[in-house]
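Internal ticket #5521
Category: modeling
Description: The requester needs a full-assembly model to guide mutagenesis choices. All entity lines are attached below as received. Residue total reported by intake: 352.
Assigned to: D.W.
Attached entities:
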Amino acid sequence: MEQGPVSLRVANTEESGPAHARVLVVEDQPAIARTVAQALTRIGHQCQVADTVHQAKLSLSNDSFDIVITDVHLPDGSGLELVRLVKDHTPDVQVLVMTAYADVKIAIDALRLEADDYLLKPFDLGDLTHGVQRALTHRWLILENRQYREHLEARVVEQARRIERLYLASTRSLVEALEARDPHTRGHSDRVTKYSVAVGQALAEIDLDQLTTGAQLHDIGKIGTREHVLNKPGPLTNEERDHIRQHPMMGVRILSPIVNVPAILGIVRNHHERWDGAGYPDHLAGSAIPLLARIVAVADALDAITSSRAYRPPRRWNEAIDEIQRGSGSQFDPDIVAVAGPVLRQPLDVTR
Ligand SMILES: [Fe+2]
């Protein structure tokens, strides 16, 4: 019995999703294929018909569909093969399987293969349109759910970035507060960042954002260093030296609750390691020292030598470069010194 035109709406309202679908009808009996396609076309869907598994596969590879309605017994194979194919590659495409009453077991097999519904032959057009409507609603809910989830994930990522930016801004204030405690180190982090980035630009595959952030924050742990140790004009006692050497780990403790970028934490933790393994806190040697930390180590030393200290005046730029070159292979990574030498031959303008 054929029904008149049916206004197919999904789940009652237009807000519930698209009412029109692209449908692939896989059926080898021309009369059934034609009836199904005509009925669905009449209510606004776009239909393609395939009469074999092979033809259906061609259609699926050339076009995209919202719904596949397939017979099970096809001349060159089983419609269940198509169920598996569609669900493996495009799981949100809805698949309806047409089976005879005698093939209830096949219908169950189809559902096990994640077919979304089945139509028991002979079905009337009411069954067909209801089946298609359910499939469309299901598909729309899947797509909406996915979109919601992706949107939510994007929001979570964006929020995490905002929190990280806010945290980095506040740590930046901490760096300024730290440097304000010692007039001899004012601007140290900015200069170390500038020298590090200049060297980093001359090396291959350096993440300059990570290098910049790590260089800015490398001494953040000194916020926990006692002030009289930080500003002591004379030589440090062993206890004072041990105390000041805790600043890399203190920096990691300050940053690790929010900064989860290993390269940034590696700079903070390992910028006082030496190429020969005699540094601290982990006594790493050679390429075991994180690359960005090796760059910052050179930049840090350059700024320390060329800045005044409570116990000595600044030394000239050329002398500092010479001293760093003397430390190549013992204190510093020779490859980085080889790059830093030419890049930093002239003092960089650190006012910008
Ligand atoms: Fe340091």
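Resolution: model delivered.
Comment from assignee: The chain has 14 helices and seven strands.
Ticket closed.
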